[in-house]
Amino acid sequence: MNRRDLLKSIPALGLAAQGAGPAEAQTALRGRLRAGLVAYTYRGELESKKLTYQDVIRMTADFGLEGLDTTVYWFPDTSAAYLADLRRTAYKNGISLYSVAARIRLCQPTPDLQAKEVAEIKKWVDVAEKLGATHVRVFGGTIPKGSTEDQAIALAVETLKRGAEYAGTKGIILGVEDDGGLTTTAEPTIKIVQQTDSPWAGMNLDAGNFPKDGYKQVEMSIPYAVSTHIKATISTPDGKKEKTDYERLFGLFAKGGYRGFVSLEYEEKDAMTAVPLIVPELLKAVRKFAV
Fold this sequence. Notes:
Blueprint: H1 3-17, H2 22-27, E1 32-38, H3 43-47, H4 53-62, E2 67-69, H5 80-92, E3 96-105, H6 111-131, E4 135-139, H7 149-169, E5 173-177, H8 186-196, E6 201-206, H9 214-221, E7 225-230, E8 233-235, E9 241-243, H10 246-255, E10 259-264, H11 271-287
Parallel strand pairs: 1-2, 1-10, 2-3, 3-4, 4-5, 5-6, 6-7, 7-10
Antiparallel strand pairs: 8-9
């Protein structure tokens, strides 16, 4: 058996050991999780300049995490020199700057406004390329007055398609986050991804943003997820908030075949004291599904 044939056989051998047949060996996918942090966790400190992004990169490494979603709102600039320094700091600390989270809003009612958002997508895709990131987070936006949800989805799809065409030339994926407005719940967010029908578009699945029935909404979304955010809490079926069961949540990710970062986005105000206490629990759960 030559090297190429051997490499092809490895996934099938693993599945055969589990009793999977040839068809399953072609399609089944084991989950593989990596723990990360979302820079938005330290939004107060970044905005007030108590912390720099370089500080957050080093903290991410100190926590034992592997990646950082940069949340670019407080970048001092996007010059080549600044981005190169961030990339160097990340490399020296063994951290992947895997995602750029920007404020792009896809659903726009006019061609001019759509063009503006496409230009923003291109800007942040270029930034991501310089950072070595392979994902850019975008939002669905609000439903325009007088529009139905289906009409709003069509508007968002138009913007995302044009953005994904450009992102694909750079090898970068756009992820639509479930975060209010048009994308408050899983169903319309998934429809945007489905109708865009691009290998360069998916869902930035935020498990803590769904207003009701968080675990069920997450399970629906996993097949479309290209990146994830994890909150300290998640919604119950009746719309209340409860502490996130990381092992249960990550079990859903793994069962659904998700491979990638599961990154903590802490939204309370005591991040400096709370996050170091949460991270060990997060890492313990991730290790069960790290592979």
